Amino acid sequence: MDIVERLEELQVLVEEAKSVPFSSSAVIDRNEFLELIAQLKQAVPDEVRQARWMARDRDELLARARKEADRLLAEAREQRDRLLSRSEIVHAAQRESERLIDEGKAKAARTRLEAEDYIDQKLAGFEILLNKTLSTVARGREQLVAPRGDEGEESREQDPFDGAHLNEPAL
Asked: How do the domains of the chain map onto residue ranges?
């Protein structure tokens, strides 16, 4: 029997006890009452031990649950921080790659413009040289077609192919 059952027996014993006339007192069987109290005394330590044991187990269980919850929370925070860190690293890498691509495109455009300017300058120099050469060739042909008087010294001095034009400065 447990404590609650013994207490119920005591309650029944008091409720069923014969009343003393003209009083609120009752006649209770002393031996029966003392026996129930003795049984209660014996049951109380067992019940109290069980209650203490259950309370201690409950406290230990709560402590373990709190510790596990704290551990899980710490792990979740660490994982969140790692993911945020990775995410930030990825974003930073993307920003850096976009910056490098833009920088590369700008450098390629500058290099292309510089190359086109260089080629244009060289072609202009070639054009000037070719125009001079064409001019020299045209003068030489005109001299060949024009009637010459004496084929002596004068014709050598006016020879367009004597290399005089090679001494002109080139661009």
From this structure: 3-143
